[in-house]
Amino acid sequence: MRTFIAIDLPADIRRKITNLIDLLQPATSKVRWARPDGVHLTLKFIGEVDNGFLPEIRRALDTVHTRSFYLSLKGLGHFPLRGNPEVLWAGVRPNDELLRLRKKIETTLTGRGLPPDTRKFHPHVTLARIRSADSEYVGQYLAGNSLFSMPEIPVQGFSLYASTLTPDGAVHHLEGSYPLEGLLEAE
After folding, report:
1. Residue 85, Cα to own-chain centre: how many angstroms?
2. Could you tell me which CATH class the domain 2-179 is placed in?
3. pLDDT reading at 41 higher than 80
4. Alpha-carbon gap, residue 153 to 10, rounded angstroms
5. Which residues contact 83 (CB under 8 A, 6 or more apart)?
């Protein structure tokens, strides 16, 4: 079972992100677009996990406690940072609370036997995965939307997902929800 941990985004933010996707869609080909209902911010990609280990992951995540916080999206970019774009993303403003939450999750899961993530954490919301596209148009699009930003989003919790890969993209299945402490109002 392929699993990951993510922050779900509110429906209005997912709609705005879908509008960004719609602006880019006509000039690209062989692109797998993020589904509006699946737009999220990944905190940790776990990868393949045996079904028998899933309850242990759930129990571990139940022990992660921290306060709710706000985050905001800012800027667009792509991976790899040099060369032809393979992933288009919306960035996240620097946020200490987000980094603390991710570190707590990472430390908790590493303590339960999962290998640590060796990649640098670059918080983002994936817009699309690109197989081929008009690179010049993508570059112009990113430059033209470089000032993209959204109001602060209250982060009230995080979720554990299992993911099934299909020819049309990944389908996510909720495996657990984990609330953070203290309720926040939407900005």
Report:
1. 18
2. alpha beta
3. yes
4. 8
5. none
Domain boundaries defined on the chain: 2-179
**Is the CB of residue 181 less than 8 Å from the CB of residue 67?**
yes
CA 125/CA 110 separation, integer angstroms: 24
Amino acid (1-letter code) at residue 36: P
- Taking the model in full, what pTM does it have? 0.89
Burial category of 27 from C-beta neighbours within 10 Å (exposed 0-12, middle 13-18, buried 19 and up) = middle
Q: Which two tokens stand for residue 37?
A: 């209902």
Q: What is the pLDDT of residue 23?
A: 67
Task: Give, as one character, the DSSP assignment of residue 11.
Answer: H
d(CA 130, CA 79): 10
Cα–Cα distance, 20 to 170 (Å, whole number): 20
Instruction: Provide the H-helix boundaries in the chain.
Output: 11-24, 54-62, 96-111, 135-144
Q: Could you tell me the end-to-end alpha-carbon distance of the chain, in angstroms, rounded to an integer? A: 36
The first and second tokens of residue 62, run together, are: 């139940």
Question: For residue 4, which amino acid is it?
Answer: F
pLDDT in tens, 108-118: 999 999 999 89
